[in-house]
Amino acid sequence: MSSVAQAPRVRLPQARRRLPQWIRLPLEWFALPLIIIGLWSLVSTFAPNTRFPAPVKIGEAFSANWINETFVTDVLPSLGRLAIGLTLAIVIGVTLGVVVGSSKLLREFLEPAFDFFRAIPPPMVVPVLIALLGSGDTMKIVVIATSMWPVLLNTIEGVRAVDEVQRETARSFRLPRRHRLVFLILPSASPQIMAGIRQAMAVALILMVISEMFLAVPGSLGYHIEIFKQNYSYAAMWSIIVLLGLIGLLMAVLFQLAERTVLAWYRGLKEAERA
Amino acid sequence: MPDKTLLTVEHLQKSYGDFEALRDISFAAGSGELVCIVGPSGCGKTTLLKLIAGLLTPSGGVVELDGAPVTGPRRGMAVVFQEYGRSLMPWMTVRGNVELPLRSTTTKAIRRQKSQAALEAVGLDGAANKYPWQLSGGMQQRVAIARAVAYDPEILVMDEPFAAVDAQTRADLEDLVRDLWAKLSVTVLFVTHDIDESIYLGQRVIVLSMSPTVVQEDLVIDLPRERDQITTRALPRFTELRTHVYREIQAAKRGAGKGEL
Known about the structure:
Distance between the termini of chain B: 42 Å
Order of helices and strands of chain B: EEEHEEEHHHHEHEHEEHH
Distance between the termini of chain A: 37 Å
Largest sheet of chain A: none
Strand order of the largest sheet of chain B: 5-4-1-2-10-9-3-8-7-6
Shape of chain B: globular
Largest interface: A-B, 24 and 26 residues
Order of helices and strands of chain A: HHHHHHHHHHHH
Radius of gyration of chain B: 18 Å
Mean pLDDT of chain A: 89
Mean pLDDT of chain B: 90
Helix content of chain A: over 70%
Shape of chain A: flat
Number of strands of chain B: 10
Oligomer: heterodimer
């Protein structure tokens, strides 16, 4: 038995001892927020400042303002417009992107115009849209839908980059146009499309708030921002920031779930290429 | 000799601007034949193949399949490309890839049956639910072959399909092609730059010259029908044929060199 050679001890990176997952994951997620809240509490206890109320006060304001029927009457409508506007942005961005990305002529013709419109800061468009569409839901949804630029531009790039051999394969097997779209163009462009959607989501949330702040009427978050601002309700203002942060977080989680499914092949492919 | 001509290439010519890639290519392939096209690198083999597949339009001459001119990809033809990694769709499973060309013409049950049979024929029936990138290069090219076989073509056109795999895998894939050809009685047009491969596989070898390309020779390979990687390649006749084609290609290269002076 003593003839068995001793294997050299190599410490692999994976061999490091790790905390079990049920401790590690919550720790990763909540450690930083807890540290920030703790520090903020300390500061607000020892150096109180009305503009920066203690986290406990913000929490109270949060539950007083949002955990009641206001959520249904004034937050859900905003979220509904956000969902519709973002869906429009994705549908229009991807559709236009596929059309423009497939044609060199269209691309050259439209790209200067795209660069012009994309450069306009969205808040500048709101007054124009109010003049055109009034101050109702339509205007707000259209404002949110202007978050389509990153989707559009990324889709164009993605469609343009479809592999030439894959295109020839599709042609040689005479795939009908709809199959080429569904089984070649869209999946091939999906990594870029998803990147565009991720950017659009962040912009859409900002535009949702902006669309409601010009003419703040009940039935929107912007209305509450106006009221709190006029009343110097700092804790309530902060509670809106927390609310928007949570909405953003929820969107990011939903996006990641979607991306994990849609781009599973892409992650696998990249890992295989690295190996 | 085959009873009927399936593919005819007549005075095919292709230029890109001033560059004359193919000057004058003529040959025919009979139904059920296995014809190899061999030529030096850069002689326009891929151009020729794309013209035959209807992926390019000729500058002159005509390609006919079943008596009708080829003006675009035809239903009776399936192509296996050299770059298997780029020809398969990485977002689809092996089965999805094999069934993709069948989607527009068959029901799900028939598709499933055909893909299963094709994957069994190439020895990949266990990998149906894997993704192409989970497979080795040789296995990926088997998937591409299965896709072409499931399409039920009259003629299978292969563009240097084994140029990128290692020698052992290549030998296995060569035998797979011979095997499928015999079993399915499909016509095979196999493009390669490898002289040994063309002689080992083909019933006929068409030797191309350097660019601007013409047919240098149309050679019948009179080796026994049953081929074996070891015994066939050891036959004196194999060596003779190999030497002959090799000289032809050397002559073609020298000829082109003189032409340029």
